[in-house]
Design a protein that fits this description.
It comes from Streptomyces chlorus. This is Nitroreductase family protein. Pfam families: Nitroreductase. InterPro entries: Nitroreductase (IPR029479), Nitroreductase-like (IPR000415), Nitroreductase/BluB (IPR050627). With 245 residues, the protein is α+β, with helices and mostly antiparallel strands. It is built from 8 helices and 5 strands. Strands 1, 2, 3, 4 and 5 form a 5-stranded antiparallel β-sheet that branches. The chain is globular, with a radius of gyration of 20 Å.
């Protein structure tokens, strides 16, 4: 097995294309992993890439749990299975609209493979974040209400929970994307899931994560059994709305 870090080449015929674009365009979710360990120095490089990501308010309150102990992974495997089974019985039961059934079947097969071999996962990364309590005084609240207006202030009261969740997630997921890009650039397979949230308390208990610390993903990492290749995504022309919807 070749475990040397390799950078993807620029697409054929375009020597001016930045290597980052080739990295992004071949960054499939790789769920079939070899059991060979990933060196700690490479895992540290993934975390370094994540730390370089944007941080809301520059608060940098993220933490990363990195699991490599086979005994701990074996303890997590039954929790993973329960979460995956719950997903496949509900949201994951049907192919998304517009996705070929055969292609979806292959994706489900990969998910099931990862489920059944989870105890062999070389590394698992859990991004965590604890958003600080807001520091708001009476004068600030008054100016806040004046700036938003009565209708805007009332609406914020209705969506405050969603706003807080998005604010916290926006401090974590840019770093997670950096981590995934770094993994691809180093020839490592990785994929992001949030299925662990179905049993988050059990996961946090198994990993000793404080109760007031939120977790945002479970990212299995290892050397791929398959090959990287072009991702299948909707054309840009279908998703862009210029100037107005």
């Amino acid at each position: 097995m070749n475990t040397q870090a390799t950078l993807p080449e620029a697409p054929a015929g375009d020597a001016t294309e930045p290597a980052l674009f080739a990295t992004m365009s071949t960054m499939r979710a790789m769920r079939r992993l070899q059991p060979d360990p990933v060196p700690d120095e490479l895992l540290d490089r993934l975390i370094q890439a994540a730390v370089w990501g944007p941080s809301g308010g520059n608060m940098q309150r993220y933490e990363y749990v990195v699991v490599t102990d086979p005994e701990v992974m074996a303890e997590l495997a039954p929790l993973w299975k329960r979460c995956v089974d719950a997903y496949l019985a509900t949201t994951g039961k049907y192919a998304p609209a517009g996705m070929d059934e055969a292609a979806y079947g292959r994706m489900v097969a990969a998910i099931e493979y990862q489920r059944d071999h989870f105890a062999e996962t070389p590394a698992l990364i859990i991004p965590c974040y604890r958003f600080p309590e807001p520091r708001i005084e009476e004068e600030g609240l008054q100016r806040y209400a004046e700036a938003l207006g009565a209708e805007g202030t009332a609406r914020m009261g209705r969506i405050q929970e969603r706003f807080s969740a998005l604010a916290e997630g926006s401090c974590v997921y840019p770093g997670v994307q950096n981590l995934l890009l770094a993994a691809r650039a180093l020839g490592l397979a990785a994929n992001i899931t949030i299925w662990h949230l179905m049993l988050e308390d059990e996961w946090k208990a198994a990993l000793g994560i404080p109760e007031d610390m939120n977790t945002f993903a479970a990212i299995p990492v290892g050397w791929p059994r398959g090959k990287f290749g072009p991702v299948s995504r909707r054309p840009v022309a279908e998703v862009v709305h210029r100037n107005r919807w």
